[in-house]
Amino acid sequence: MRRRADTLGFTEGAVWTEAQVGTNAIGTALAEVAPVELLSGEHFEQDQHTWYCTACPVHDPRTGDLLGVIDISGPALTLHPAIGALAETGRRLMEAQIWRCHQEHLERLRQSAEPLLAATSGPALVVDDHGWVAHSSGVAVGARIPAPAARQTLAVPGYGVCVPERLPNGWLVRPYSGGRKVLLELDLSSAPSLQVQAGDTAWRRLVTKRHAEILALLHRAGPAGMSAEALSQALFGDTGHLIAARAEVSRLRRQLGGIVATRPYRLADGVRLTVTHGDAGEP
DNA sequence: TTTACAGCAGGTGGGTTGTT
DNA sequence: AACAACCCACCTGCTGTAAA
């Protein structure tokens, strides 16, 4: 059977999408995102008419993302009524295994961070590289937060502006509040850059002129912040560029995380910005 | 008091255009 | 070719309001 299957293209690297081979259990299950059972002439290709194929999609239990399918194929005359249940059981086992690995990974991460957590007072999160929460204290959060990255602040509901600190297999995320400020120094030279000082860590990153302009405007607006309309007026001279203003702030927020708050647009609480002009004579 | 709905603000993926 | 800037379309979430 395996030799005969090889002649059909049941080999590593083969493409079994509907677009390539027409109706088939694998490609159709991927397209429909549902279990599919095909017998004999229900296949599009004639050389598959002596086969049955039963396919069941497998999803990531954490995100719901479609990962692939389990397919059971064989001679059409040997199709057993329980084959569909077998494929379904395989799917359940795979998804359960993925979930168990995920939980074990988070538990190992939590255990490895225990010494650090014991020495930490106040709210703290331990998350993996994708933002899945292994431990939270102080403030309840969901199962997942935005994925942390080096030299990147992020906003966590209930925590405010946070700067992640690298752990061996994950991140320690603590809010910056009270005496723990995020200090920004915006250099409005011909190549604008932003110096970020958060606790013991500091870094500098280049920003576009437009983003530098937005940061300077939000700094000038103070805690009251600016509406998208006001930002459009300040950036473009009229209020007809709301979409462009929103898009630019959205991209700025993606770069700088929780440093820029919304509703209205403003610098987040705990963020202090100073503006310098690196180029001599630059206004 | 609850629910459904509309309107609005804001977020974001992707396309286009202009510049370097 | 790569990048920045701009724009559009579509989506989500919040809020106010009317109806049940």
Mean pLDDT, to the nearest integer, reads 78
What structural class do helix, strand and pairing data support? Answer: alpha+beta
Based on Cα principal axes, name the global outline.
elongated
Radius of gyration: 27 Å
Tally of DSSP helical segments: 7
Which residues form runs of ≥5 with pLDDT under 50?
Answer: 279-283
User: Could you say how many structural domains there are in total?
Assistant: 3
End-to-end distance, in Å?
77 Å
The biggest sheet, with number of strands, parallel, antiparallel or mixed sense and barrel status, is:
5 strands, antiparallel
CATH topology assignment of the largest domain = Arc Repressor Mutant, subunit A
CATH class of the largest domain: Mainly Alpha
Return the CATH architecture of the largest domain. Orthogonal Bundle
Strand order of the largest sheet: 5-4-8-7-6
Count of strand segments: 14
Q: Please bin the fraction of helical residues.
A: 25-40%
Order of helices and strands: HHHEEEHEEEEEEEEHHHEEE
Strand composition percent: 25-35%
Protein name: Transcriptional activator of acetoin/glycerol metabolism
